[in-house]
Amino acid sequence: MLKTVRGVNALSIGKVAGIVYACIGLLAGTVVALISLLGGFAGLMARDSGGAPMISMFLGVGAVVVFPILYGILAAIVGTIMGAAYNLAARTVGGIEIDVD
User: Is the pTM of this model over 0.85?
Assistant: First the structure.
């Protein structure tokens, strides 16, 4: 049986996209933080490195906080815009047909 999706709640899509991408941002921030920590430790082992390795380690750890916030906010905005765009397109062409049992 074919059902047609003629409209979606744009804010709902924005909320879900924000949460999903905040989780992805947490993973990306963790990877950046680990790479930054490894680079900072390597810099500390070098001679005459100054304070740059310590600064890079703290900035990398900050990515664990900043990435999820940025990813989440941007994805919520884009998800809401895309939901509204779908609603406009669905009005014009009739929506998406889904086969449901």
Answer: no
Contact by Cβ (8 Å): 78, 18? no
Go through the chain and tell me how many residues it has: 101
Which residue is it, tokens 């809401």? 80
Dig out the tokens for 21 from the structure.
């991408």
pLDDT tens for residues 83-96?
999 999 999 999 99
State the sign of the Cα–Cα–Cα–Cα dihedral 74, 76, 77, 79.
positive
- Residue indicated by tokens 């899509």: 13
Question: What is the three-class DSSP state of 1?
Answer: coil
The Cα–Cα gap between 20 and 25 comes to 9
Residue partners of 73: CB distance under 8 A and separation at least 6? 18
Instruction: Name which of 91, 81, 101 is nearest 5 in CA terms.
Output: 91
